[in-house]
Amino acid sequence: MTHHTKMPGAAVRVQGLRRVYGDRAVLDGLDLDIAPGEIIALLGPSGCGKTTLLKILAGLEQPSDGEVWMGDTCVATAGHSVPPEQRGLGMVFQDYALWPHLSVQGNVGFPLRMRGVSRQEAARRVDEVLALVGLQGLGARAPSSLSGGQQQRVALARAIVARPQLVLFDEPLSNLDRDLRDSLCAEMGSLLRELGCTAVYVTHDHEEACALADRVAVVMDGRFHQLDAPQALWSAPRTRQVAQFLKLGTLLDAQWQGSHWQVAGAQWRCLVPPVAGSTAAQGQLLLPHGALALGTAQQDDHLPVQGRVLSQHYRCGQFDTWIDADWGQPVRVHSSERLPAGARVPLSLDMQRLHWFAAVD
Ligand SMILES: Nc1ncnc2c1ncn2[C@@H]1O[C@H](COP(=O)(O)OP(=O)(O)OP(=O)(O)O)[C@@H](O)[C@H]1O
């Protein structure tokens, strides 16, 4: 691992970061450069280490190995850690963490008071930021008199009022209902971009991560399985775990037979070439949603794929149709017409959209 590398251009640089509890590496060698103004989402299942990474960025935990840089300051190594209040951070937590004995104004103005900003200037900036988050006129209220969504706006206002160099979010929307989450997520994204904030946003909700972030880090077992723009996660998942976590489609066990893939249990062959450099003969094929459709548009060199209708339900203008296509796992296709359960139907498969993951990836 390299030590004390200067970081021209990056707002935050994480290098070779490890965090060990007992004999278990919860973070296992992470590297991450965050550009100024970039929003990064840390996305992953419960226990994957995303909160631990956020805490290390915040200064609430220390690395076991590796470094964290903010601007041109090294803020954390195994041996030293700059305290949270000296890192120039804003933070937004799941449970809002507002001070109940302070008014909305008092909460939002707190970071300015800590920085010695004059009372008059602080009042002006608090009014300005409350207007930005859509809470103008509510400054005198107690946080407890506000709805959950409003309280989270107060927390957001408090996090950005002092124009921090980095804003950290720990599942900020998970206590809110779906509609409010969607709208607040979109608003937060616009606001952070408007203000040019650099942000790291922890969530286990992939819709939220992809709606908000410039790049999403899919964290699993303490490693980044993929660090990419949201659209790249969908078009080119790097591991089958990413595909599984994002629910991109159906994974089928398959074997490379020298000239084609043979899917276990299926009557058809797939001619997607093996991944360059891969010598594995065993692995899994991902059939992304939408790669399979009702219809017979088979290419010459494939055996026709057929399936049996298992069930259907009507949703958003079409029938979600579950099909048993002989390979052991049902797949979902869309249909414009109602089909009887048990009917055999031809399926077309867009071979270009399949992905192959070698058994050991
Ligand atoms: N102080 C600690 N001592 C021992 N183990 C810990 C400690 N903090 C976290 N862990 C373990 O490290 C792993 C990662 O925890 P972390 O909170 O970072 O996960 P997470 O991805 O944020 O999960 P969640 O979404 O449930 O919050 C977990 O298995 C957790 O039990």
From TrEMBL:
<keyword id="KW-0067">ATP-binding</keyword>
<dbReference type="InterPro" id="IPR003439">
    <property type="entry name" value="ABC_transporter-like_ATP-bd"/>
</dbReference>
<dbReference type="GO" id="GO:0015697">
    <property type="term" value="P:quaternary ammonium group transport"/>
</dbReference>
<dbReference type="InterPro" id="IPR027417">
    <property type="entry name" value="P-loop_NTPase"/>
</dbReference>
<keyword id="KW-0472">Membrane</keyword>
<dbReference type="InterPro" id="IPR017871">
    <property type="entry name" value="ABC_transporter-like_CS"/>
</dbReference>
<feature type="domain" description="ABC transporter">
    <location>
        <begin position="12"/>
        <end position="246"/>
    </location>
</feature>
<dbReference type="GO" id="GO:0005524">
    <property type="term" value="F:ATP binding"/>
</dbReference>
<keyword id="KW-0813">Transport</keyword>
<dbReference type="GO" id="GO:0016887">
    <property type="term" value="F:ATP hydrolysis activity"/>
</dbReference>
<dbReference type="GO" id="GO:0015408">
    <property type="term" value="F:ABC-type ferric iron transporter activity"/>
</dbReference>
<keyword id="KW-0410">Iron transport</keyword>
<keyword id="KW-0406">Ion transport</keyword>
<dbReference type="InterPro" id="IPR003593">
    <property type="entry name" value="AAA+_ATPase"/>
</dbReference>
<keyword id="KW-1003">Cell membrane</keyword>
<dbReference type="GO" id="GO:0016020">
    <property type="term" value="C:membrane"/>
</dbReference>
<dbReference type="Pfam" id="PF00005">
    <property type="entry name" value="ABC_tran"/>
</dbReference>
<protein>
    <recommendedName>
        <fullName>ABC transporter domain-containing protein</fullName>
    </recommendedName>
</protein>
<dbReference type="InterPro" id="IPR015853">
    <property type="entry name" value="ABC_transpr_FbpC"/>
</dbReference>
<keyword id="KW-0408">Iron</keyword>
<dbReference type="InterPro" id="IPR050093">
    <property type="entry name" value="ABC_SmlMolc_Importer"/>
</dbReference>
<keyword id="KW-0547">Nucleotide-binding</keyword>
